[in-house]
Specification:
The complex is a heterodimer of chains A (about 80) and B (about 575). Chain A has about 80 residues and is mostly helical. Chain A has one domain. Helices cover about 80% and strands about 5% of the residues of chain A. Chain A has a two-stranded antiparallel sheet with strand order 1-2. In chain A, helix 1 packs antiparallel against helix 3. Chain A is elongated and about 55 Å long. With about 575 residues, chain B is mostly helical. Chain B has one domain (about 1-560): Sodium/glucose cotransporter, CATH 1.20.1730.10. Chain B has helices at about 1-30, 35-40, 50-60, 60-75, 80-105, 110-115, 120-155, 155-205, 210-215, 230-240, 250-265, 270, 280-315, 325-335, 365-370, 370-375, 380-415, 425-445, 450-475, 480-505, 525-540, 550-560, and strands at about 340, 360. The termini of chain B are far apart. Mean pLDDT of chain B is about 85; it is low at about 1-5. Classes of the chains: A mainly alpha (about 80), B mainly alpha (about 575). Chains A and B meet through helix 1, strand 2 and helix 3 of A and helix 5, helix 10, helix 11 and helix 13 of B.
Chain lengths: ~80, ~575
């Protein structure tokens, strides 16, 4: 593989990770916390209605997890392509 | 007895505020900047952990610390726009911006815009956007400093602003980014401790659960077995307010505000610049994750505090005789943040949704600042909140002032006016403009224009409408050229300014809620302006020449960490 092909392939994999992670990002916040909140609110966990919980608690926990998953995926990808500094 | 109690809160406040200020100054002296690289980006050698804490402190302003929980307690579910909006942006930052900008490896956002779009016009547009965003934001911080000083140290608000400014001046001018970074690490520790201690105390008091995030969804500790949120929904209904977990904004507006705040967060120059300070691309990703983790500790606690405070407040005041109100009530009445008028002369406090019959006006800021007093926590906890509020306000103000001074000394003077300036002189220009920016900010703090509070929320709309599309397209769309990016930024920020002036300041014919475009409030309009920016940029770039080869190479290069080989 030439260096150009290599950087193209790396970029493509990176963009695929981004698409998947951002889809989850959208689903937990705009999906569960806003658009489908009323439906989810019929489910209760303890004192929380589920839609309300996603909007004021759950989405934020998922955000943190998403970034750390991305960090791990990218560190692996950097190694695979020899880009780790 | 009661005067002794007040005395000792004040004594505690003097001790805690004094010790924390001494700490900040000590750190500033220890971490003086010797070069422009140290002044602008702390030498580029900050560890991801330290950068994560510093970013969190930079990010969490007086508004996050003092006002947010209070605002949420009045907004209920709708408060989620701030919670999700001000945290979700970090996902965008970590995935779409920080690693590539770190690889780019210059000092500022206008640096990136100027080089990527091979144009000094683009750079100047970016500088102007950065200055507008940062100045609107910094003025709000100064008010926060003033409020804390006037209530807890019982000095005049103006004196409070000046004391705060002298401290910031000292470590920002001396230490630049390096001094700011390490004081922010200390400030994060102070502010998170100050926020969590009262929250944990109150959570135990009300629900028996020491973790506020769980206590919020738990049952009351009075043995009734009723869930706290059900109780609050019931109380809200009785008084005529919307149910707490329902809220009252329209779906489209909640969506738009959340998106505008998220995208705005990712486009704020003082946040982005923090990722220039770490050594490697992988450190930039990791420190974005750590920053969000540190932020989320406070942001998931805040809505719990809102629920505790709201329930406590209603139970303490609603329908109770004015003559039996505890001491904190009168303390806050004297600051004007709490106001009772006995409209029906029955000596009882009617606190209801109906404006006609409601007798109690409560400022948002009280909910966090008075919460420990309302819950009758020990004096040192009350004093701790003052030190925490000051840490939050000062750390954010310092970060913003640095962006302002860098924009002037580096982007304007060095890059545009005097490219042959020596590094030593540039450092002095940077210090000078930091000092000037502090003085201007202090002026706004002492003479706050009436629209400050309104404008701070809009700073996000402005950042979303200007920087975010230009940076994203610069990284992800190689074909994006100078003409497209500049027209997108200009039209985006002008559209946002127009909407803001029309619906917030009654210019261009003004308008009411019924006239909002697509039912979207000015706070959420950043979403629309951002989409327009993207559309204009893409359209214009189609009809204008592609960027030169060497610029396309820059894009190839920032997409991968390390050397391309």
């Amino acid at each position: 593989m030439t260096s150009k092909q290599k950087s193209k392939a790396y970029w493509k994999e990176n963009v695929r990770y981004l698409a998947i992670l951002l889809l989850i990002w959208f689903l937990v916040s705009y999906g569960a916390g806003i658009l489908f909140k009323d439906t989810l609110n019929t489910v209760r966990i303890g004192g929380f209605e589920l839609g309300f919980w996603f909007a004021q608690q759950g989405s934020m926990y998922v955000f943190v997890i998403l970034i750390f998953v991305y960090v791990r995926l990218m560190n692996r990808l950097d190694k695979k392509y020899g880009y780790d500094e | 007895m009661s005067s002794f109690a007040v005395m000792s809160v004040q004594a505690w406040t003097y001790i805690l505020v004094g010790v924390s200020f001494a700490l900040y100054i000590g750190i500033a002296i220890w971490s003086r900047a010797g070069s422009t690289k140290e002044f602008y980006v702390a030498g580029g050698g900050v560890s991801p952990l330290a950068n994560g804490m510093a970013t969190a402190a930079d990010w969490m302003s007086a508004a996050s610390f003092i006002s947010m929980a209070g605002i949420i307690s009045f907004m209920g579910y709708d408060g989620a726009v701030y919670l999700m909006g001000w945290t979700g942006g970090y996902v965008l930052l970590a995935l779409l911006l920080a690693p590539y900008l770190r690889k780019f490896g210059k000092f500022t956002v206008p640096d990136f815009i100027g080089d990527r779009y091979y144009s000094s016009t683009a750079r100047i547009v970016a500088v102007i956007c950065a200055l507008i965003v940062s100045f609107t934001y910094v003025a709000g911080q100064m008010r926060g400093v003033g409020v804390v000083f006037s209530r807890f140290l019982e000095v005049d608000i103006n004196t409070g602003v000046i004391i705060g400014m002298v401290i910031v001046l000292f470590y920002a001018v001396l230490g630049g980014m390096k001094g700011i970074t390490y004081t922010q690490v200390a400030q994060y520790c102070v502010l998170i401790f100050a926020f969590m201690v009262p929250a944990i105390f109150i959570s135990i008091q009300m629900t028996g659960n020491p973790i506020p995030q769980l206590g919020m969804g738990g049952t009351l500790s009075d043995g009734s077995g009723v869930y706290l949120l059900d109780k609050l929904n019931g109380l809200s209904r009785e008084l005529g307010f919307a149910e707490y977990t329902e809220g009252s904004k329209s779906l489209i507006d909640v969506f738009a505000i959340t998106l505008a705040l998220m995208v705005g967060t990712a486009g704020l120059p003082h946040v982005i610049v923090r990722f220039f300070t770490v050594p490697r691309v992988k450190d930039a990703r990791k420190s974005a994750g750590l920053a969000l983790l540190f932020i989320v500790i406070l942001y998931t606690t805040a809505p719990a505090v809102s629920v505790f405070a709201r329930t406590n407040l209603i139970e303490t005041v609603s329908g109770k005789p004015y003559s039996e109100m505890p001491e904190w009530f009168t303390n806050w009445e004297t600051t004007g943040l709490l106001d009772f008028t006995d409209k029906n002369d029955d000596g009882l406090i009617q606190y209801v949704a109906d404006e006609e019959r409601n007798e109690l006006q409560i400022d948002n800021d009280i909910m966090v600042l008075a919460n420990p007093e309302i819950a009758r926590l020990p004096n040192w906890v009350i004093a701790l909140v003052a030190a925490g509020g000051l840490a939050a306000a000062l750390s954010t103000a310092a970060g913003l002032l640095l962006v302002i001074s860098t924009s002037v000394s580096h982007d304007l003077v060095k890059k545009q006016l005097k490219p042959d300036m020596s590094e030593k002189n540039e450092l002095w220009v940077a210090r000078g403009s930091a000092a000037l920016a502090v003085i201007i900010a202090a002026y706004f703090g002492i003479n706050p224009p009436g629209f400050v509070a309104a404008v701070v929320a809009l700073a996000f709309g402005l950042a979303a409408a200007s920087f975010f599309p230009a940076i994203i397209l610069g990284i992800f769309y190689k074909r994006m050229n100078r003409e497209g990016a500049v027209s997108g930024m200009v039209i985006g920020i002008l559209l946002m300014l127009f909407y803001m002036m029309k619906f917030k300041f009654d210019l261009f014919g003004g308008g009411t809620e019924a006239d909002w475009w697509f039912g979207i409030s000015p706070e959420g309009f950043g979403m629309v302006a951002m989409i327009v920016n993207f559309a204009v940029a893409l359209l214009v770039s189609r009809f204008t020449p592609a960027p030169p080869e060497e610029v396309q190479d820059i894009v190839e290069n920032i997409r991968v960490p390390g050397e391309i080989r």
